Amino acid sequence: MINFILMKLQDIGLFIARRRKSLDVTQQELAEICGVSEHALCNLERGTGNPTMRLVDSVASALGLELTLAVKDMEAV
Predict the structure, then answer these.
(1) What's 74's DSSP letter?
(2) Using CA atoms, how far apart are residues 27 and 46, in angstroms rounded to an integer?
């Protein structure tokens, strides 16, 4: 099965924020778990800045999420 979902940084941030809140974890707690600053996590959740893949992967993993890359449908572009 191939999934063709493309997410903007703001969508990723919103998804991460919702997941964090559903787990009843504060930004401060998640930042400590991931070893990142609370400011970096806040920027990620707001979809601002230029987060590294390492940051996104660390936060996703801490929230029980997995990053996936898929081949884009070149004919649909």
Answers:
(1) T
(2) 12
How far is residue 22's CA from residue 7's CA, in Å, rounded to a whole number?
A: 20
> Rounded distance, CA 40 to CA 46, Å?
10
Q: What are the Cα distances from residue 13, in Å, to 9, 10, 22, 70?
A: 6, 5, 14, 19
Residues 46, 15: contact at Cβ < 8 Å?
no
Per-residue pLDDT reduced to its tens digit, 8-49: 888 899 999 999 999 999 999 999 999 999 999 999 999 988
Tokens representing 1? 């099965």
Q: Residue 30's CB: how many other CB atoms inside 10 A?
A: 22
Report all structural domains of the chain as residue ranges with CATH numbers, in order of start: 9-62 (1.10.260.40)
Euclidean distance between CA atoms 3 and 65, whole angstroms: 16
